[in-house]
């Protein structure tokens, strides 16, 4: 029986969370807001609208949201030609595909950003499909991106495993009824990830690959 291996990208397959933090910090600064970087870091992984609301509050001037989000996009775009993938990220995706897992990305990235991230991972031959922010009404921590990834792979939630690095990833997977695996490479503490629903936690994707047979992927799809 076929299963789905669903992956977040930023902080999971690519070492990009802190690039997002810096870009968001500058975008907020340009709009006249001083937002502490640790707060931004813990919000990374949310869609732009949810991230802005979380950091500025529901009583902010929402008329600034589009300008802040656009500034982040422009600032982050300066890194597109040198986004770093984590060591062995592509190897992990290729190994899972070779074991008959259907690899699907579930990410808030889209367009040129998603293309740049896929170039960094360099494993397009292993990736079956992508559930991006363009494809859903509500991003993580809502279940919708993970549910869409399951549909794209043609599997039930019980046949899927989701790998991510944030609390939002774990909450989305849990709400979708998908087993959640966390990596610490995004900088979120193990305890926070476990409280949010992580069934297993690894240092990074290389550590997951080294222990694949003993991981939730070890029994094979389904």
From TrEMBL:
One of its GO terms (cellular component) is cytosol. GO terms for biological process: DNA repair. Gene3D superfamilies: HAD superfamily/HAD-like, Putative phosphatase, domain 2. It comes from the Bacteria. The keyword Hydrolase applies. One of its GO terms (molecular function) is phosphoglycolate phosphatase activity. Keywords: Hydrolase. It holds the Pfam family Hydrolase. The keyword Metal-binding does not apply. NCBIfam families: HAD-SF-IA-v1 (TIGR01549). This is Hydrolase.
């Amino acid at each position: 029986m076929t299963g789905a291996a669903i992956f977040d990208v930023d902080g999971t397959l690519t070492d990009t969370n802190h690039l997002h933090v810096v870009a968001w910090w500058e975008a907020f600064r340009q709009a006249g807001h001083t937002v502490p970087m640790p707060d931004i870091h813990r919000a990374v992984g949310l869609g732009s609208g949810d991230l802005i609301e979380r950091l500025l509050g529901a009583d902010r001037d929402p008329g600034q949201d589009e300008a802040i989000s656009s500034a982040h996009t422009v600032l982050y775009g300066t890194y597109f030609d040198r986004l770093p993938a984590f060591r062995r990220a592509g190897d992990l995706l290729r190994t899972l595909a070779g074991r008959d897992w259907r690899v699907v990305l579930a990410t808030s990235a889209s367009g040129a950003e998603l293309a740049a991230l896929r170039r960094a991972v360099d494993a397009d031959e292993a990736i079956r499909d992508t559930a991006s922010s363009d494809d859903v009404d509500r991003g993580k921590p809502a279940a919708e991106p993970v549910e869409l990834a399951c549909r794209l792979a043609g599997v039930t939630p019980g046949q899927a495993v989701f790998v991510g690095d944030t609390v939002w990833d774990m909450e989305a997977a849990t709400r979708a009824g998908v087993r959640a695996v966390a990596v610490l490479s995004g900088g979120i503490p193990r305890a926070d990830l476990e409280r949010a629903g992580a069934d297993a936690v690894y240092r990074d994707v290389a550590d997951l690959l080294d222990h694949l047979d003993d991981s939730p992927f070890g029994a094979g799809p389904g």
